[in-house]
Amino acid sequence: MTVGREAVTLPLLLLTVAALGGVRVAPSGTLALVPPSLMALLLATLLLAALVRSGTLAPRRLVNDGRVALENASGAVVLVALLAASAQIFALLTPSGGLLAFVVTAFFLLLLWNTLAVEPDRRQLLRSLVVVFGGTFVLKFVVLASLYDPASGLLKRVMLTLLEGATLGTLGVVPDGPVTGYLAFLTLGLFFVALILLPRGLTEPGPFLPQSSQTIARGRS
Amino acid sequence: MSPSLVRTIGLAVSLLYAGAIVRVYVRQPATLPEVAGSLTSSVGAYRIDQARFDAGLTFFRHDQFVEARDAFAQADPARQDARVQFYVAYAFLRQGWGRVYADDALYRAGKAALEHARSLAPSGSIQVDDPDLRLKSSEEMAAEFDRGLTRELSDLNPVRVFRERP
After folding, report:
1. I want to staple A91 with a disulfide (CB 3.0 to 4.6 A). Which of A36, A149, B21, B49 is the partner?
2. Measured between alpha carbons, how far is A51 from A85 in angstroms, rounded to an integer?
3. Domain boundaries, position B79
4. Distance from CA of B29 to the nearest CA of A (A)
5. Are both B29 and B66 inside the same structural domain?
């Protein structure tokens, strides 16, 4: 991994994801900036653990005893920004309240728990995340947005009424405006770019790994 | 460029960027101009339109409060200047003030504007040195709003009709 990627590209990319992930634009055009919930932070921590286990993220390449303080500070910024960005992604993809928020949160929790148990490799984890995050994106910003669209047809409104009735009115979805959907798509895309750029578990030591770690890595190989 | 220099620049830019994001989230802007204003004010680059502010003051002094608020909104589109927002709150106060009773809706709007203005001031307090104003601090104005919004027996005191407008 190059110095520029670690010190400039990744922090700025992840901070942008963290910033955009909380933006909600109501259909009226009113803006709201939503910080991540505690549950989103917990899910983000689990995601980081899964990223480390799969080798998608090698935290020792960012922070370790062999690096000087400036290098460690730079690496720590990447890790903190990754946690913030992940939390905002979970907050973004989870419906704002009601039964569906509970269901989606439980789904994320079980899925991450299962991922930690299975220990997939980097490629498998990234594919899995694309499917999971893509699926919840479609659910929230395409399916639910379409159902709750005030200009939708009679059939959709009947379906929605039946759905609300079947769940005893606990769905409680407050649809975001279409701008939020476009922003969410962009945010999700940037997040996956950042995940791909993260320093991965080494088979060959990189040019910026300290000499001591390179020796260890060579010894292992 | 040396790796250390790249790291130093990257660290500084990242911390500034993170600080600006936190600041915008704390301010909770409701429109895109407010987001832009919040970001520019975080680096000290935000400026109000002084000409529109002066026009607003002229309206305010001629008791044209709706026009005054409109001009203040144009002078400070991002609602980032504590002094302008203080005058917005004052415009609500004077418009809502009455000798017999206060207009609750205008007082509530004014109180919200004052709270926003105080959130913009670093110390949470605003002092305005304007001889035209009776209430020169945010604390005095907050108390005036609270008095206007509180129902009590002294509201029935007939001497109230002789009190001065704030």
Report:
1. A36
2. 14
3. 48-162
4. 7
5. no
Closest chain B CA to residue A76: B11
Q: What is the CATH number of the domain that holds B124?
A: 1.25.40
From the list A12, A30, A70, the residue facing B14 with the nearest CB is: A12
Rounded Cα–Cα distance for residues B161 and B154 (Å): 12
Is the same domain home to B156 and B103?
yes
First-last CA distance in chain B: 62
Number of structural domains found in chain B:
2
Positions of chain B with pLDDT under 50 = none
Q: Given an 8 Å threshold on Cβ–Cβ distance, is B10 in contact with A15?
A: no
Q: Do B14 and A81 touch (CB under 8 A)?
A: yes
Q: How far is B32 from chain A (nearest CA, A)?
A: 7
Model pLDDT, residue A169: 66
Nearest to B22 by CA among A26, A63, A81, A97: A81
Report the C-alpha gap between A144 and A28 in whole angstroms: 18
Cβ within 8 Å, pair A8-B6: yes
Contacting residues of A for B15, CB less than 8 Å apart:
77
Q: Which domain holds residue A195?
A: 3-220
Total count of residues recorded for chain A:
221
Q: How high is the mean pLDDT in each 10-residue block of chain A (221 residues)?
A: 90 97 88 93 96 93 92 95 97 86 93 92 94 93 79 72 69 78 96 95 52 46 38
